[in-house]
Amino acid sequence: MKKLILSAIVVFGTMSMHANVLPVSQNAKSTVTIQSEYTEVTVDAVPAPVKTALQTAYPGAKLEKAFVNDKKEYKLEISVGDQKATVYSDVNGNWLKI
């Protein structure tokens, strides 16, 4: 009789542990960051404040490619000497990411 009761306690104890573990994994949340899509534009289409900020921050930098998104944020692929970089600016020439 003692073995039967002990077996029942072990079985129910195991079930309750699984019951506690499953909801945690089912309720797990993940965060996804969606980056705004950029569309390529000509270098001439980049506003003057952005070009001025680029030359101020990176004297002698050459603007290779330019992209813009719906928020009028610019992704600029630049080269300075033999180094290449991508920088981000708003329409007013304020740096977002360097």
Features:
alpha+beta; 98 residues; 36% helix; 5-stranded antiparallel β-sheet
The coarse silhouette is: elongated
Q: What summary fits the major beta sheet?
A: 5 strands, antiparallel
User: What percent of residues are in strands?
Assistant: 25-35%
The percent range for helix content is 25-40%
Rg value: 29 Å
Total of DSSP H or I helical runs spanning 4+ residues: 2
Q: Please list the strands of the largest sheet in the order they lie side by side.
A: 1-2-3-4-5
End-to-end distance, in Å?
73 Å
Task: List low-pLDDT spans.
Answer: none
* Topology order in helix (H) and strand (E) letters: HEHEEEE
**Mean residue pLDDT:** 79
Q: Which structural class fits the helix and strand makeup?
A: alpha+beta
Count of β-strands: 5
Give a verbal description of the structure.
The chain has 98 residues and is α+β, with helices and mostly antiparallel strands. It is 36% helix and 30% strand. The chain has two helices and five strands; from the N terminus they run αβαββββ. It has helices at 2-26, 48-57, and strands at residues 39-41, 62-68, 73-80, 83-90, 95-97. A five-stranded antiparallel β-sheet has the order 1-2-3-4-5, with no helix packed on it. A hairpin with a 4-residue loop joins β2 and β3 (73-80). The longest helix is centred in the first third of the chain and has 25 residues, at 2-26. It is elongated, with a radius of gyration of 29 Å. It starts with a helix and ends with a strand. The mean pLDDT is 79.
